[in-house]
Amino acid sequence: MGIRAAVFGASGYAGGELVRLIDAHPSMEVSHLAAHSAAGRPLGELHPHLGGSHRQLQSLDADAGSPEIAFLALPHGASGELAADLAASGAIVVDLGADHRFADPALFEATYGSPHPHPGSLTDWVYGLPELVSVAGATRVAVPGCYPTATTLALAPLVGSGAVLSDGVVVDALSGVSGAGRSTKEATAFGAVAESVRAYGVGTHRHRPEMEDAVSRITGIRPAIVFTPHLVPMQRGLLATVYARLADGVGLADLMDVYSDAYGEAPFVSVGTESPQTRWVVGSNKCLIGVFVDEPTGTAVVVSAIDNLVKGAAGQAVQCANLVTGLDEAAGLTPVGWMP
Amino acid sequence: MGIRAAVFGASGYAGGELVRLIDAHPSMEVSHLAAHSAAGRPLGELHPHLGGSHRQLQSLDADAGSPEIAFLALPHGASGELAADLAASGAIVVDLGADHRFADPALFEATYGSPHPHPGSLTDWVYGLPELVSVAGATRVAVPGCYPTATTLALAPLVGSGAVLSDGVVVDALSGVSGAGRSTKEATAFGAVAESVRAYGVGTHRHRPEMEDAVSRITGIRPAIVFTPHLVPMQRGLLATVYARLADGVGLADLMDVYSDAYGEAPFVSVGTESPQTRWVVGSNKCLIGVFVDEPTGTAVVVSAIDNLVKGAAGQAVQCANLVTGLDEAAGLTPVGWMP
Amino acid sequence: MGIRAAVFGASGYAGGELVRLIDAHPSMEVSHLAAHSAAGRPLGELHPHLGGSHRQLQSLDADAGSPEIAFLALPHGASGELAADLAASGAIVVDLGADHRFADPALFEATYGSPHPHPGSLTDWVYGLPELVSVAGATRVAVPGCYPTATTLALAPLVGSGAVLSDGVVVDALSGVSGAGRSTKEATAFGAVAESVRAYGVGTHRHRPEMEDAVSRITGIRPAIVFTPHLVPMQRGLLATVYARLADGVGLADLMDVYSDAYGEAPFVSVGTESPQTRWVVGSNKCLIGVFVDEPTGTAVVVSAIDNLVKGAAGQAVQCANLVTGLDEAAGLTPVGWMP
Amino acid sequence: MGIRAAVFGASGYAGGELVRLIDAHPSMEVSHLAAHSAAGRPLGELHPHLGGSHRQLQSLDADAGSPEIAFLALPHGASGELAADLAASGAIVVDLGADHRFADPALFEATYGSPHPHPGSLTDWVYGLPELVSVAGATRVAVPGCYPTATTLALAPLVGSGAVLSDGVVVDALSGVSGAGRSTKEATAFGAVAESVRAYGVGTHRHRPEMEDAVSRITGIRPAIVFTPHLVPMQRGLLATVYARLADGVGLADLMDVYSDAYGEAPFVSVGTESPQTRWVVGSNKCLIGVFVDEPTGTAVVVSAIDNLVKGAAGQAVQCANLVTGLDEAAGLTPVGWMP
Description:
- The structure is a homotetramer.
- By secondary structure, chain A is an alpha/beta fold.
- Chain A has two domains: 3-124, NAD(P)-binding Rossmann-like Domain (Rossmann fold), CATH 3.40.50.720; 146-308, Dihydrodipicolinate Reductase, domain 2 (2-Layer Sandwich), CATH 3.30.360.
- Helices cover 27% and strands 21% of the residues of chain A.
- Chain A is built from nine helices and 14 strands.
- Chain A has helices at 13-23, 43-46, 80-88, 105-112, 146-161, 190-193, 207-219, 252-263, 310-324; strands at 3-8, 28-35, 58-59, 69-72, 92-95, 126-127, 140-142, 169-175, 198-199, 225-231, 238-245, 269-272, 287-294, 299-306.
- In chain A, the strands form two sheets. In chain A, strands 3-2-1-4-5-7-6 form a seven-stranded parallel sheet, sandwiched between helices.
- In chain A, helix 1 crosses helix 9 and helix 5 packs parallel to helix 7 (207-219).
- The longest helix of chain A is centred in the middle third of the chain and has 16 residues, at 146-161.
- Chain A is globular, with a radius of gyration of 19 Å.
- The two termini of chain A are 35 Å apart.
- Chains in contact: A-B, A-C, A-D, B-C, B-D, C-D.
- At the B-C interface, strand 8, strand 9, strand 10, strand 11 and strand 13 of B face strand 8, strand 9, strand 10, strand 11 and strand 13 of C.
């Protein structure tokens, strides 16, 4: 018997990945599955790779049977009520959605276009990037978005140490299509994605304020970031290339020292001077960081690779859950990926 | 401490997959790694997804340190000497290559174009398709090829039961590119594979005699098979569509009964009446079989899906190793895949 | 000024391809564009590759301005009324849809599940496979489906010459995703298609009766075909692998003679003994056929490759239009493809 | 009869694309084909999509038969001698390689690591970016690299007009695999590319000096650029996302005015405020530019999309050839692409 975990939003990609990880977790078990429009359908119909399971998805408002931990993988705006109820019932809540990532309700409103439904609760949440934020002891964890995960792990140590300037940062990132979620839309049809690349949300993507805020809360210094995500024709994987101007006199060795201080003990972050490929991390909870210095322009160029559904979503959620429940940080997770 | 396993040919795709599976196996451990041209290089350079391991590959003739079990993932013709030496030293040998799959040296010569180097040893080997051949107690196991695995699991029960005629069988199969191995060649360049499909080895592919022989040895009836493999633009996955003429009076329910008898207890084979997709099995050791009857022509159409590197190679090898060493058949293996 | 052509269903893939081809045609011009749900939208918004054109799509019932030729690229069931009106107005009608491919209304009903709305008109239509059916002089042309095009070009000469038996034919075919049309559906999302293959419509696909009927009308001999289409992760291209039992004494040279007789003068069909790849024909109006004899089983294995949107749809439609209007068969078409 | 054109390096991707374009050109014809290691082989074997042509490739030093124009698509370092000989014989030379793109031999040596073999000849060459450099009257044209084409078209007008600052420019670009050429290497195997992205040549790619030099020669202002190319899993297409700091008071409307002045008459460059996708241009000679202003940071973000083999290589070469020979700039080229 393991820690009893409920998964809300089990029909989507992140939800399916949560079930895959928890089913294989040595100290956790899925005690409840729920979804919105897929309520009533068997899990194996939605996620045939999970072995044809006949476990049925419940509706979101069904009795969850008092789980010890609840994972929410819901669209933004959908977690508030549910999170409050679950927390009131004593469950630890790990939210993979966007509702609780900002401490400041004004920032939420500016970013998501509507007032936060429970502004008073936001300070109860810890931002679940465990390499840079202590989550032990928390009862409510807001798991970062995929782009902010890859970017903040690359950028925050540099900004925090003063190795780079905080303005004029450029983050240019590439994501596989699973990052757009599972709902069927014209923009993610095979015919619209294969053999093509595109930038999207130029200047307007909601992960920019999140990554600025994350770096600010972690380091006390708010960076000014230009962020452009791109959609590339692959299922999984996310690569962020981060450009920041070096402070005077800072060189590659200094940057490596900064990262060594930040991640020396981290089981899932590796920093080197080689350019990482997303297929080296797909399937794993790793973040691989490659560090370069562009001498002619005095720029740090840092390339950060994750699996958007693992370290960028479900894996990081489990990592946080391990820490808040006192388990080994790496329980049920792996630094080993799939390839080819 | 687990059973000490040596992996020969650790630089290729099947070799990498063996290391991935054995590293995660609860009762087995990699005690020795060897390769031909990659000898001397660190494992993590060849397989960065394995977590940047610094374990070094030895040459094929280095002292393997008396492993209890040896996995050979070598090109055909390369296993003979090594297998004999390892067996002589008392190791259980599991060969993923083609050298020991035939019992009849004449069939080997007709198929591979040169006499078998150790014809006398062939009868010492068991064909490692554990759902249909008993491997318990064996000390030398020849793991089937990827196409013969998917095909034989679909075809042998039908031929053996007399539900279908043994002549006029057509096997039309599709494979991801990893099935062609890792060596760099023009035919498997991205530019030659993406956005295209092709048939190859029409009428001449070496897996045809293997699947005919496998069915013959399992059922006592030798089928006549036309086999056409196709290369499709994906990394992993193999789908075989098998056509066989139904015996008089045989219908879908009869076919399902035959499969139920054959695979009722098998942890990795599932049979249904739905068309399986390769992504439902990629990453798992499953074989998913979908059964159809084409009434107008009296034909059984059976679609069989596997991950060519797992059930079609390394996973099946571990499954056999589990059985010959008395472990649970499913130890270190999973029926759960990756998706998306 | 060229022949004035109207395109109905201009919003889909086949419709867009028609516009691309006619815009570049030396003796034809697009005089009218219409669509169903996309009526009112500019062409360049639906097909940005067509150069950002501001030509607007009209509704299907708008006045088409008396085109000399009308191309219909509509879902099945949608062409009847429109085709009749256009024909009454004196236009030549080339229908890329399924409504007029059968001469026998009973076959239509058995295949499409509802009575044909204009059964009396079916005999007015010519099946537009110009290498095997004379279309000169026709005023109504029903362009074959993509699978029947590739299959019938491979199979009909062999059946018609008696080189192969007409029963026990297996057609196993692979298609890129554009063959499923442009409408947004879960089954054709990138997440559902990339890195996977699947069979679909096993035993029930509507192109099986069409190809049986096509061969029958062309040769007088009705074959019995088992047909399994597969979806593969690529945008364009279709490969059909056709298996038929050789008549006694027939060998490869005989098959080549049969094809030489059939296609000696055809500008778009090439027959050889090499296995064609779909990327060799993508973008062109070619059909490449590779012929093999499987000696052990006495089977002809014929591999046929086309671009499903060109020779399998829009290109063949233009080829037919050229012939019925007395233009050069190849006007505006090319045997040269795109690669990589 | 058209202008007689020789193609040197006809075996590669750019060479094949040149043949495809010239074969379809109304006023140009391929009079000679040559290659290095592929000399003696038929064109149709190397480029099966070109219709099975039996034209044979000559060796590079064979008599080219006095072509009026010669296209060189050779590795860097291989064009010098040949270009000099051809020019001496009176041929117009259009070099798609890197040897003649710099005016300054020192810059060539710094970039390519060896002294230029014909430093004195460099000033005879015109940089073939015809929208920004006049090529009429030239007899030697050096066609830009693919990344410099997309980048310079986006950046030069902004730098030249003073709308953006010339330092602190970031160019983050994505390329399909054909950009790496056709030679078989491990890094471009399907197994190494599909389902993955990577940055490469971080800080060291040779196209960075080229794009800095191109902007400098066109505008008189030398920008400082950080450039990171990425390899993405697609055959064709290139997307450059260019970040530059806006000069005080400059807004989106100003940027659009600048581009309108630069490209108002250009048949192949279109500028808008929408994010272009590479599939909108693949197959065409277009460059689509999407312009954005990031208000919070005062940054111009410009996304530029081309087909790397057409506008980024062979198409641009033909465009230049048209201009230097007095033909219509767009002869044999098309602004219309392929999609899907």
